[in-house]
Amino acid sequence: MKEERATSSGGKSREDWDQRSDELAVRKFSQVIANAVEQALNHSARKNAKDNVAIFVDYDNVYWTLMNRYRHDPDHEDIEKNLFERLWTFYGMDNIRMFKAYADFEQVDANLTSLQKKRIQIRHVYANGKSEDKAKNASDIELSIDAMETSYSDPNITCYVFVTADSDMIPIMSRMLYRGKHVELFYVEDAIAKHTDIRNYAHESYDLLEFLRVDVSPKNPSDFLEEAIDYIAEWHAQPANKTKNLGPKWLRDGLADYLAIPSNTASQVIDLLHRGNYIREELRTNEYGTHKNIVLNTDVDVTREQIPTNF
């Protein structure tokens, strides 16, 4: 009799265990289905959000950052490296409702006809001839005002895309999040502020250097010193430059174009030439006033071995 009760008890335990296992399997399966449905709905919501896209490009900021650091023109001749062509392809021509670029176009070297052919809405922000940083701030303000006005005047815009190279867009991006908009960001990793990560204010973010396939290989300033010396000598030898001054900014920009290097690298080249005492600055007066003029030190014998290479 005891043996029968033991056997009956053991059978019941196995049945209870099997029932609990079945219930656990059902719960796990239900959770998997629920997760899959949630992911599908989220994906659908994100996809629907990108049906009506407005793109705002802080072109002052992006242009100077990419050109000064990487010598990469945002309006690159290669469509795979061209900011505007890539964005049209990425979001789709049928989904983009607005595509604006903000800059002081008297300061940036931009081909306006090229931009207009790409159907870019150009917003010229006059910075009164101020420095690059001040011009950037002027564009930031104008862009933010336009984006906010758009959120009220055109409620059908569901996705706001901000293209920038610093963290000044955080206030307008935060405001768009509060308004229930889908926000996406294109940024430059080494140009964003360290104390506040701008990527926290976007649903999705993309590194511009990767997106545009920018050449980020390091440039050694000492590799360009001989050519820089040749450039300065040739510049002063030109009859058209006899009454002109080769100022620091003119020399930096000229070397950047001549050597096809970033402006930052050109500045490092000039610094090495100064430290090696191969160039000097003098004040010269012409019809435009008195300005700095950079010339070669003719009393110094220029040899490759003597040029400092540590930077």
TrEMBL record:
Residues 52-205 form the NYN domain. GO terms for molecular function: RNA nuclease activity. InterPro entries: NYN. Transmembrane segments: none annotated. It holds the Pfam family NYN. This is NYN domain-containing protein. It comes from Sulfoacidibacillus thermotolerans.
